[in-house]
């Protein structure tokens, strides 16, 4: 094929570095965000050291400069300003440079063209530009650790006025780099969003109607719309804050009558859609994997789509629930409580439909399926714990405590990250042509699931006891001292949790060369990406596929196998060249 | 039954689609631009309602007649953009180049007047910096007025400037004869962007200068 | 590892704790049922050779049921929360006989101002303390919460009180302690490098004891306030 041959003539740098091929860009995003995932994990381990063993010398701390760790004869002790930078950067890096690019950058790029039967994105060069903005933005974020005053230390939410002037924290350049880095990342996200939306609307293969799209693509489509509309709000806020920091405007500074709460309103008006940007693609991926593992159609496909759409809509009118204790009008608080409670409904619908999907299935517990089931069970916890803080009087007590920390990690780690593990393992063969090792995949899943719960479940409990978040030394408060053994237990478990991720990393790297060859369709799945070779050639499809049915026709009575590819003509029509049956991965 | 896949290089709109990719992409991009200006304008409204004493009466500080004229110029540039588009849909190469050049000149004039206005205002002590606002000059309003004024009009001006640069590119392509009565996508999306920027200005002019 | 709230000592306590336990029960039941179903289905419908899954696409009836029930449940939770929320945060709910206080937050301490003997803040006989707050038991106190620099959050865990202090705003906070004793004050909003040190103590006295303290403070109001703090600690 022309395009394919053409691709091989391109120089190495055009094929793998400045590539316009959506599959290569997906892999670039994957490597980038896995790197930042490791960085974010190490930052978390350092935070936990300080919380578990406050002001005790940190192992290896002597390697860090004196501005971060105060050297003592016994070893290096973490400074409070460095602790604040760690908390800020852990949140920022995990949300913006790990989870968001993993879900949107990796799966958006990899899956959208393949699942709708397109040869590439609508704007391949814009797509390339998206990655080459995101990656330097991430490096800039890391560089801010090394500048004078250290990295930003006002939390990932960067509440003004703490973030608006360096006089309160001693962080000047670090905070500015934080703002600039996120603004650049915003451009990258916008480029991606414009691309995804255009591609999905305009480039679906014949027969790929809206309601024949896999839920992963549906979720990514809605997510792209949220990104498109939410990121500019953040950009506006970031720029105003940057002006406050650099040229001396006073948008958020009370000294010049600016409004600190304006920052919070802008940030959360962006921030709550952002929360769903971080979970909707995970829900889509989970739906695809669950149906595949259960060998059964997704239960209530239309209800699932409607749930995604209504979550996206409602996500614009709930932002105030982050601000119940901010001094906002109590009547407004009541309104936001009601909308927030209502947004729990579509999430509940999704959970029940997932349960419906596995009900009466023929469940094949491959590694992606385990992770998808892990997602569902952890998302249940994260979703239910959200009900506590939606109730405003209860929120008065648990706001800004470890209960919130537990909640966000059940949604973002137990939720999004498990779905990411599911998705990466599931589509790994499409990216690299080989399967990841099943045995080590399962070992990694069970260790992660257990350790993860040992880390975050107790955080509910210490939050209920009143343990505030973002405090450098819990033992400073007498009433928190009895909780210190739990803090230490969590810390030890975090170290183990970080360590077992090495299994996944090794499995990932070794399988690139040593994994079992995958063939076109190792999971016996239905959607269009499984009709092409692994990895697909440049241009993806040799012939424009024609789509005859939805993506979840598993175990249909009309066919002998328990799967039915979307582009296989119905029995009545003349048979297309029969596909070679592929071995099931196991 | 199946048809050969289009290669990446020569992409055509999929069958049944009403709008080609680039145009759809531009519409989608403009939606995000709407949200960006919504953030800025929304902040302005909130700050102004919270601190009316910061904002001078219309015309007290800002030169309304000058900017009204400038607004007229920008609207004219939208008209000339429409003329450029109309020309190329008829295959009129000369008309396209002429009206694009007119649009560029009008746009540049607009930015020039805005820069002139900035210089005059800054000399009077109307600056975005909170501490320097009105220092040594008796001008009305206070810090938030300068900050919001320069941020909103500045970002709009940046958009106009970017538009002018893109328009030079479109003009260069027009000179190479890249557009025709069948192929005028570049001119059309340029026009979309330009009209959008124009529309934003009319809103900004109304709320910043007139109200 | 407990899901029980620590004991509360204010009039807000019963309301907040009741709502918390209602939600704990509701979510707890949902949690157990859904997780149990998940595990049961995985075991019951695990893969068997030669078996096909049942070809079901969904059920409108089921969708209606599991949309309506959660909808009713969450709205009910929202509506039973409203009265307590208004009582806690609406400035109109502050009892008329509440004692006036000013709490001024700054990096990194709480400055508490008392009305003194005349019952009005902002007058010459005001008393002030740092990080230690004295209130009488069974008496509502009405705090005007301010901040000098950045956001702080005034957190009295046992009183079930939390409110951000925002520079440029006067925010009303009120509560009524129901038992004498010493309780922690915390800062719950990241406020800078020494955020963690911004703690304090709330001393709740019997009414007579409190009046005596106010009188003693007012007597030597001209003396350095800091010295008084030392005595009271």
Low-pLDDT residue spans of chain C: 224-233
Instruction: Report Rg of chain C.
Output: 25 Å
Helical element count of chain C?
Answer: 4
Q: Gap between N and C termini of chain C, in Å? A: 33 Å
**How would you write the strand order of the largest sheet of chain A?**
1-2
Give the domain tally of chain C. 2
Determine the mean pLDDT of chain C.
Answer: 91
Major sheet of chain A, described briefly? 2 strands, antiparallel
Order of helices and strands of chain A: HHHEEHHHHHHHHHHHHHE
Shape of chain A: globular
Query: Beta-strand percentage of chain C?
Result: 25-35%
Helix proportion of chain A: 55-70%
CATH homology-level superfamily of the largest domain in chain C: Cupredoxins -  blue copper proteins
Secondary structural class of chain A: mainly alpha
Main β-sheet description of chain C: 5 strands, mixed
Quaternary organisation: heterotrimer
The total of helices of chain A stands at 16
What's the end-to-end separation of chain A, in Å? Answer: 33 Å
Q: State the share of residues found in helices of chain C, binned by percent.
A: 25-40%
Order of helices and strands of chain C: HHEEEEEEEEEEHH
The strands making up the biggest β-sheet of chain C line up spatially as 3-2-1-5-8
Keyword list:
heterotrimer, B: 211 residues, mainly alpha, Four Helix Bundle (Hemerythrin (Met), subunit A), 69% helix, elongated, disordered N terminus, C: 233 residues, alpha+beta, Helix Hairpins, Immunoglobulin-like, five-stranded mixed β-sheet, 10 strands
Architecture overview:
The complex is a heterotrimer of chains A (586), B (211) and C (233). Helix content of chain A is 61%, strand content 2%. Chain A has 586 residues and is mainly alpha-helical. In chain A, strands 1-2 form a two-stranded antiparallel ribbon. Chain B is mainly alpha-helical and 211 residues long. Chain B has one domain: Cytochrome c oxidase, subunit III, four-helix bundle (Four Helix Bundle (Hemerythrin (Met), subunit A)). Chain B has helices spanning 21-50, 64-89, 93-123, 143-175, 185-210; one strand at 3-4. The N and C termini of chain B lie far apart (63 Å). Chain C is α+β, with helices and mostly antiparallel strands and 233 residues long. Chain C folds into two domains: 13-89, Helix Hairpins (Orthogonal Bundle), CATH 1.10.287; 96-232, Cupredoxins -  blue copper proteins (Immunoglobulin-like). Chain C has four helices and ten strands. In chain C, a hairpin with a 2-residue loop joins strand 1 (99-106) and strand 2 (109-114). Chains in contact: A-B, A-C. At the A-C interface, helix 4, helix 10, helix 11, helix 12 and helix 13 of A face helix 1, helix 2, strand 7 and strand 9 of C.
